[in-house]
Amino acid sequence: GTDYLDSYILHGPWKHGRDLAPQDLEVWAALEDLYRAGRVRAIGVSNFGAEQLQALINDLSTSVVPMVAQIRTFANRGWDDRVGGVRGICESEGILFQAFSLLTANRMVLKDAGLQRMAIAREETVEQLLFRFAFHEGMVVLTGTTNEAHMDQDLTTSLSSMSDRGKQLSDDEARKIRGVSIFKKKHRPEHLRPSIRR
After folding, report:
1. What is the pLDDT of residues 106-139, one digit of tens each?
2. Would you say the C-alpha torsion 169, 174, 180, 181 has a positive or negative sign?
3. Inter-residue contact 158 to 53 (CB < 8 Å)
4. Nearest to residue 128, comparing CAs of 156, 166, 96, 163?
5. CA dist 143 to 97, 153, 191, Å?
6. Alpha carbon of residue 20 to chain centroid
7. Cα–Cα distances in angstroms (integers) from residue 97 to residues 45, 67, 141, 197, in the given order
8. Is the pTM of this model over 0.70?
9. 8 A C-beta contact, residue 184 and residue 147
10. Which of 122-131, 152-161, 168-177 has the lowest mean pLDDT?
11. Is 4 within 8 Å of 39 (Cβ atoms)?
């Protein structure tokens, strides 16, 4: 049998929005009990917005701060920006931020010409570049691939991001990736942007 779980995650709030429902606090109390009993090594949340995560932390009925926050991470939301987003709360509270669907949630970003040029110059794929960006930003990346070649790329990128200083992103490269917006490409094609006369 299993004596303990490495982590146990509340998959999502009872309802999306800014507030927590009583059911969220009830489930969180059960997770806290499992954690205190040593049955779970880490407890956390998934799919919580910043307001809900902060409400959970601040609620007087809770005594354990989530150790992990799994969040679907989008470029058009500032990669869940550090300022006012879940990442900012995670940084200030010492919560591990796990980015999931980093590639599937950002398919338009994978086609960005600037990122493609950067990846070619670095001799890696755009997918590897986004993973490296996530590591640079302090995120842990969760992948869901079943493709063995992609698994190998993911693992190689993860390991080299931790050990090979030459492959890590510069702050300037990270700034450029941070600035990529899905909406800029999706809703404002180059030929529809107004020209600027000088």
Report:
1. 888 899 999 999 999 999 889 889 989 998 888 9
2. positive
3. no
4. 156
5. 14, 11, 35
6. 21
7. 10, 9, 9, 44
8. yes
9. no
10. 152-161
11. yes
Distance, CA of 77 to CA of 166 (rounded, Å): 29
Q: What is the DSSP string of 91-116?
A: HHHTPEEEEESTTGGGHHHHT-HHHH
Separation CA 157–CA 167 (nearest Å) = 9
In the sheet that holds 140-142, the strands lie side by side as 5-10, 40-46, 68-72, 96-100, 140-142
Nearest Cα to Cα of residue 68 among 83, 47, 84, 85: 47
Compute and round to an integer the Cα radius of gyration of the chain. Answer: 19
- Contact between 178 and 79 under an 8 Å Cβ cutoff? The reply is yes
Q: Which residue has the tokens 């992990």?
A: 68
Lookup result for tokens 């010492």:
94
Which residues are within 8 A (CB) of 115 and not within 5 positions of it... i.e. 6 or more apart?
109, 126, 129, 130, 176, 177, 180
Residue 115: count other Cβ atoms within 10 Å of its Cβ. Answer: 20
Segments in 111-187 forming alpha helices (H)? 113-122, 126-136, 148-163, 171-178, 182-187
Q: Indicate the residue type of 79.
A: W
